[in-house]
Prior knowledge:
The protein is built from three helices and three strands, in the order H-E-E-E-H-H. By secondary structure, it is an alpha+beta fold. The protein has a domain at about 40-95: Ybab, Chain: A (2-Layer Sandwich), CATH 3.30.1310. Helix 1 packs antiparallel against helix 3 (about 75-105).
Amino acid sequence: MAKGFNKFGGSGGGGQGAMLRQLQKLQEQMEVAQAALAEETVTASVGGGAVKVTMTGDQHCRQVVIDPELLKDADAEMLQDLILSAVNMSLDQSRELANERLGPLSGGLPGMGL
């Protein structure tokens, strides 16, 4: 390597140190945002409120609520379809929430694969 050449720009490692500090700050912000996402929830409701699924921002199912009136008909296939729809909708909402919260952070350093 040529004397005084630094692949991160600048000489003497100053640019490299600044880049490292920026990465550390970004990592801390990501950790805080991910912890907050684990606490935030979204709820999807299908069948006119007959089935509700609550999911966290980090895609963990917290609750499934089935209206007892729905069970009186005892149509297992319909119930399965409603649950599947509610789970998929809540996962979509959870991913959107995560993208809203983490998107600005992941775009912070272009070319870094974050």
